[in-house]
Design goal:
Elements: E1 2-7, H1 13-20, E2 27-33, E3 50-54, H2 60-70, E4 74-78, H3 83-92, E5 98-101, H4 110-118, E6 129-131, H5 135-143, E7 151-152, H6 160-168, E8 180-184, H7 193-206, E9 211-215, E10 230-234, H8 242-246, E11 250-253, H9 262-269, E12 274-277, H10 283-286, E13 293-296, H11 301-313, H12 316-330, H13 335-344
Parallel strand pairs: 1-2, 1-4, 2-3, 4-5, 5-6, 6-7, 8-9, 8-11, 9-10, 11-12, 12-13
């Protein structure tokens, strides 16, 4: 049985859904994780083939000893923020594949240029491979000195089975989509939710039949806008989203900054036309302009408003075509495909 060690930051339920897909491949997962984010208090599933360790209960030295005891066939690590995680990778470098999980988009700012400059003397002496969500991160991995052949895409993956079930549970959505936008995410500044509330309030005066459902919690929840047509549902566990998604027609994510955004993949799998800002990494894979949604300029309320107007101008039949296009794009990446990519990092391991 192959042993896989994840040195993770904040786990999410969708990550565990992907990890669960490895259970048929005769592997044992060992997952070290940071505490749960209070703004995303997910309830996690139990994995039959996994042992989970709390990072805050392990010193750096104890973590290294744990890794030596496990003696993994591959190590996968979330970024380079945890010095204890780096210590483990340095100790195992060239003894087994050590994979950097990288979700930062390449922007070319000074910090990234410095990282690229020192990477040959730093990251490349700890990590043999990189696994990234998509093309924006692939570029950064190359800048850090990883050869193209050592980089794989598709690290972040939605629980497509769950969201496909949401879609198939409501056949009425295949004949007409509700005239309601839906936002699913944290109530924090960088998500651009304040621009969303403002743009929708203006949009509502011209298109009174439309409504906006907002799901999530965070620092801005107590400052939420209470206006006609805006409904705040609070935090909802992924498994409980079903009833809320039934009532909505178009997903909108207005983030000012979003390295990836798995929720875009989730909503595409559930059959939603999509509006995204141009900072959202997942739009590069799951949104084709005019085909299943629209991209607007981040931090620009007018641009968001105009994207909403474009959606409102589309016929019900065209919206249904967009819905199907979203699902086609979403199903190109599934937890089963994720599991096969994971196993491909281990030499001589078959994912069949």
């Amino acid at each position: 049985m192959k042993k896989i060690l994840f040195l993770y930051t904040e786990l999410a339920e969708y990550v565990l859904a992907s990890m669960e897909a490895t259970k048929s491949h005769n592997v044992a997962l060992h997952i070290v994780r940071w505490p749960v984010n209070k703004e995303a208090p997910f309830e996690f599933r139990n994995l039959e083939n996994a042992t989970i360790y709390d990072r805050d209960s392990l010193t750096d030295d104890a973590l290294l000893e744990l890794a030596k005891e496990i003696n993994p066939d591959v190590i996968l690590t979330s970024g380079w923020v945890d010095k204890g995680y780096l210590k483990v990778n340095k100790a195992f470098f060239k003894k087994c594949p050590t994979v950097l999980l990288l979700d930062n988009q390449y922007t070319g700012d000074l910090k990234q240029k410095v990282a690229a400059f020192i990477s040959p003397f730093w990251l490349r002496k700890m990590f043999s491979n990189a696994w990234v969500p998509g093309t924006p991160q692939f570029i950064f991995a190359q800048k850090l000195g990883f050869p193209e052949a050592s980089i794989k895409r598709g690290f972040y993956c939605a629980d497509t089975t769950l969201f496909d079930q949401f879609y198939t549970s409501y056949p009425e959505r295949k004949t007409a989509l509700p005239t309601k936008f839906i936002y699913v995410g944290r109530y924090v500044d960088f998500k651009g939710i304040e621009e969303l509330w403002s743009a929708f309030t203006r949009f509502k005066t011209t298109y009174p039949s439309w409504e906006l459902i907002c799901i999530g919690t965070g620092d801005l929840f107590d400052q939420k806008v209470e206006a006609e047509g805006i409904h705040h549902r609070g935090f909802v566990q992924p498994s409980d989203l079903k009833e809320h998604l039934k009532d909505a027609g178009v997903f909108v994510l207005p983030s000012r900054k979003e390295p990836w955004g798995v929720v875009v993949h989730e909503m595409a799998a559930a059959g939603f036309p999509i509006i995204c800002s141009n900072t959202i990494g997942a739009a590069s894979r799951f949104l084709e302009e005019g085909e299943n949604g629209f991209i607007f300029e981040a931090n620009n309320e007018e641009s968001l408003y105009q994207a909403m107007v474009k959606i409102a101008a589309i016929s019900p039949t065209e919206l249904l075509t967009m819905s199907e296009k979203s699902r086609t794009l979403a199903m190109d990446l599934t937890p089963e495909k994720w599991a096969k990519t994971l196993l491909s990092f281990i030499p001589s391991t078959s994912a069949q």
